[in-house]
Specification:
The longest helix has 41 residues, at 145-185. This protein is 66% helix and 0% strand. The protein has 194 residues and is an all-alpha fold.
């Protein structure tokens, strides 16, 4: 018990000494800053409407938006004769842009297309499920083996289409997530991604 009390007392003394030393160093910094400000003789210049004509003759420099990198050959071959995106068209100068120079309309169109692709694939998955259920009902209702065999082939084909749909849907969702990450990194506002 005695060692514990000694340890606590020693820790309290160390903290008190450190706090005093820190307060002194902070006070020294404040004094140095006060002296530095006193040495500055010039008062900041205030620009009023009367003096604005003195500054209106200068040139204004602006930074133009960064041009987008061209699409790679794989994406061009996949899209084929697709309609050109809005980024290729004339950009409204008043339209907000992200850090990469892509306007709001680009992100809205791109996200709408990505969401539509996911929705279409989800709808296709539902249709395939309904088709599969109908084919299974036809299989069990068929009276002869030849009819069952032809329905069984259709069922197998539908299973294959369902597997392809699942793969495509997973890819589309991944592309949508990647697109959202890219948009956040490039400074697109959240409202543009809906």
């Amino acid at each position: 018990m005695m060692k514990f009390t000694t340890a606590i007392f020693s820790a309290a003394i160390c903290i008190a000494i450190a706090a005093t030393a820190y307060a002194q160093s902070l006070a020294d910094i404040a004094n140095k800053e006060k002296q530095r400000r006193e040495q500055i003789d010039e008062a900041p210049e205030i620009i009023t409407n009367d003096k604005i004509s003195e500054y209106s003759g200068g040139s204004v420099s602006t930074i133009s938006p960064i041009s987008l990198p061209s699409k790679n050959k794989e994406s061009e071959s996949k899209e084929g004769d697709a309609e050109p995106s809005k980024i290729d068209k004339e950009i409204d100068p008043d339209e907000p842009v992200d850090f990469m120079g892509r306007p709001e309309s680009f992100w809205r169109e791109t996200m709408t297309n990505a969401h539509k692709k996911v929705k279409d694939l989800e709808d296709e998955a539902n249709i395939l499920t309904l088709k599969l259920n109908e084919l299974q009902t036809q299989f069990y209702n068929a009276g002869d083996g030849f009819r069952q065999e032809s329905v069984q082939r259709e069922i197998q084909k539908t299973y294959y289409e369902q597997d392809l749909n699942k793969e495509n849907l997973a890819k589309a969702k991944e592309e949508l997530e990647d697109l959202q990450k890219e948009a956040r990194k490039s400074g697109a506002l959240p409202g543009w991604l809906r």
